[in-house]
Write a structure and sequence with these properties.
With 240 residues, this protein is α+β, with helices and mostly antiparallel strands. It is built from 4 helices and 12 strands, in the order ααβββββααβββββββ. A hairpin with a 5-residue loop joins strand 8 and strand 9.
Length: 240
């Protein structure tokens, strides 16, 4: 992978908040889950979204078996389903932007890079500490997981469709920030795995996503969160 194409791929990984991984990842939830209430799942997913328009600035680092790069990015989020994502690579190279509405890309610039290299919008949301509600045709499973130490509460959700399955595990530890992990499988194969560390306000502080087939890793660190952000309407229509 050379120059421009490498940076485009890195930008797409930013859009997914990706991180390097092992070829043989153990399942995030290695057990069957009982059926759960869709209303309960919706209550949980809606609770992960910001209550006001929010701007998130972050630094990112990407590496795979061949390259390492770093850059910065900005995410603008308006509940319940709107996300504007901007990223820039080293020395201002490899930049791009996209608007996501729910699980769909409204537009992307460069369009070909984003659409071909971003395989799962839900993983982008998860890396930012937010979760999308189950699809209309998804079967919902969920349970409280046992913790041997007794100091942490762990809850697991599974949204299963015909080909795609999304698993989430939320860990709340007494005196510590929460962790949200997500895994996307297609036809039983792990495509991506994310892990987000939340701060005391339940907002993403750092995150990563592993792509085991690459293998590749992208890590992001949040440097500022503006919950009184004014987002000009034009930003939803075009890159500039």
């Amino acid at each position: 992978m050379t120059g421009k194409r490498s940076l485009s791929y890195i930008g797409a990984c930013v859009l997914l908040a990706a991180c390097p991984g092992s070829h043989q990842l153990a399942p995030l939830v290695p057990l069957a889950l009982p059926p759960a209430s869709r209303d309960s799942a919706l209550q949980w997913t809606n609770g992960t979204l910001p209550r006001t328009p929010t701007l998130i600035r972050f630094r990112w680092r990407y590496q795979d078996e061949r390259v390492k790069y770093a850059g910065r990015g900005t995410a603008r989020v308006v509940a319940p389903d709107s996300l504007r994502f901007d990223y820039v690579g080293p020395l201002g190279m490899g930049s791009g932007a996209a608007v996501v509405i729910g699980d769909s890309v409204a537009w992307a610039d460069p369009e070909e890079n984003f659409r071909s290299l971003v395989p799962a919008i839900p993983m982008l949301w998860a890396a930012l500490g937010m979760t999308r509600p189950p699809a209309d045709d998804a079967t919902v499973f969920g349970t409280r997981l046992a913790d041997s130490t007794g100091r942490a509460r762990r809850t697991a959700w599974r949204f299963a469709q015909v080909e795609d399955t999304l698993d989430y595990v939320v860990t709340d530890s007494a005196g510590h920030e929460s962790i949200v992990e997500a895994e996307w499988r297609r036809r039983g194969k792990v495509v991506a795995r994310s892990r987000s560390q939340l701060d005391s306000l339940e907002r993403a502080a750092s995150a990563r996503v592993d792509f085991p087939e690459a293998p590749a890793r992208f890590e992001l660190t949040v440097v500022a969160v503006d919950t009184a952000a004014v987002i000009p309407p034009a930003l939803w229509r075009s890159r500039r």
